[in-house]
Amino acid sequence: RRGTLQLKQEYQSMSSPPTQRDEGDGGSASGDDENDSRCTTDSSDTTATWTVLHVPGSTVAGATFNFTNSVVGAGAIGLGGAIAVSGGAVSIACIVFFGILTKLSLDMLIELTVKTDGANNSYEDLGRVAYGTAGRFSVLISKTLYSFGCLVAYLIVIKDNAGPGLRNLIYHDDGGAGLADASWFEILLEREDLLTFILSTAVILPLCLNRDMTTLSNFSIVSVFAMVAIVVIVILLWAINPDGEVRHQGGTTYENWFEIRPGLLESLGTFVFTFVSQHTVHLAYESLDRSVRTVSNWKKVSLFSILISTTVSLSVGVFVYMSFWQETESDIFQIYPPDLVSIDIARLLLCITMLLTFPLPFFTTREMVVLVANDCFGRDDESEEMRAALLAEDFGEDDLEDTSFFDPTATAIDDTNGGSGDHHSNGLQRHMPRVISRQKRPWLKPGEERQLISSYHVALTTILWSATTVLAIKSPNLGDVLDLVGCATGTFIAFILPALFSFRLVGYTHLAAAIFVIGGIVGSVGTYFSIGQLLE
């Protein structure tokens, strides 16, 4: 009987593609596809062959654009209104502060995940290792709620800006008259709800049918540059002040910049929402190619992403605030004069950004639903004690000191017998009968825990897309959504959970304590005032 160490080596050989085949398989692994490699496991019974495909990932630059795209979004557009009700200097300080705090939290999460056995490069598995089922479900629920709130906010931005932007550019009016003689396209642009549904169907749904964010790297670059163009337009309008209609007369220097206004507490959610990206951080890290997937490279990605996001967000928020001062609203382009072509272009660029950003939190939402379904409906009836007893019987008590290499959710793909057959016909399966193939979930792709088979994938994607589209069409204004989502779920997923996991896995640190205290105060106080504002 093979020992635990040999079995561990063979199991790891399945998890990472070797550079060449075993001698028993006949020579080099090179073939028609250089990314296709095979590895073999020999036993006294038979020889099993696994095919391992290596899909190239993103470079550091590509991951930076991907992650920046997931950070910059509706939060940046809502900052002008939040600054107006909070105060100038204190708002800028809050934006910079939460940007730095988010960067530290992101790096803490990735370091914990990489260094923790059993974390499996996922936020929810890190929670499971730290606090068991309670930790895992806390992550699943908070990520789902926050990501879903992001999706609704993005579609609200599209609803508020796509129709007016196209209508003003094409027909040079604000849609206020002449609809009886208007063309069908002009009537469509006037019906913002219907236009939002059509754009969501034609653009967002096909993008959301992708399985991961690697293929969206080129779209992310377009989205980031569109956001930069919006910043340039806002700054130029402030500087040029066409016809004297853009720069309004504000109050005194103290009132504009140093006064702390009553709306600060209810706007904390918008400041947090601007940067929260922990719901997509592991997707971004996993999108890095394996040759560059290190903690040090990830810190470069997070640094550049947060730096770009902070610069873009501050530029939009501050220059819009300096244009309209206390009259600034949460959806900034609704307050500009309707006859400015540059604003209509900015509106369309913003819609492009939201359309291309939408898939990133959507992937997270779909993945969380799949994991919740796995936990609720995909478990077998064996207890942990029963599985431990089976392993002890198979290996012996002395050889069972280190079983961390067993993946309780993995499924071995055996090309020799088509993935089925007598468990005793293969040495690897004989010694891991209940661990490798522990869970039977017909909705999952073979060997996957997070990816559905095609029919379920399309069905779940369509259901989630439909729910977010309908809610966005019926939702209130953007500012209320940003405040509530940012405080109620953003602080929990960005600050509280990472700090709690660090306490449990590493021990007390000043950084984790600071993140926990700040996140708890901002979350509780901000949620209270946001709900009060929403009820009013």
Please tag this protein with its features.
single chain, 536 residues, mainly alpha, two-stranded antiparallel sheet, 64% helix, disordered N terminus
Describe this structure in words.
This protein has about 525 residues and is mainly alpha-helical. Helix content is about 65%, strand content about 5%. The chain is built from 19 helices and two strands. It has a two-stranded antiparallel sheet. A hairpin with a 4-residue loop joins strand 1 (about 35-40) and strand 2 (about 45-55). Helix 2 packs across helix 8 and helix 4 packs across helix 18. The chain is globular, with a radius of gyration of 26 Å. Residues about 1-55, about 380-385 and about 400-440 have low confidence and may be disordered.
Strand neighbour order, sheet with most strands: 1-2
Give the averaged pLDDT, no decimals: 79
Order of helices and strands: HEEHHHHHHHHHHHHHHHHHH
User: How many DSSP-defined strands?
Assistant: 2
What is the distance, rounded to the nearest whole angstrom, between the alpha carbons of the first and last residues? 72 Å
Helix content: 55-70%
How would you classify the helix and strand content by structural class? mainly alpha
Largest sheet: 2 strands, antiparallel
Model regions low in confidence, pLDDT < 50 over at least 5 residues: 1-53, 380-384, 399-439
Share in β-strands: under 5%
CA gyration radius, whole angstroms: 26 Å
Secondary structure tally, helices: 19
Shape: globular
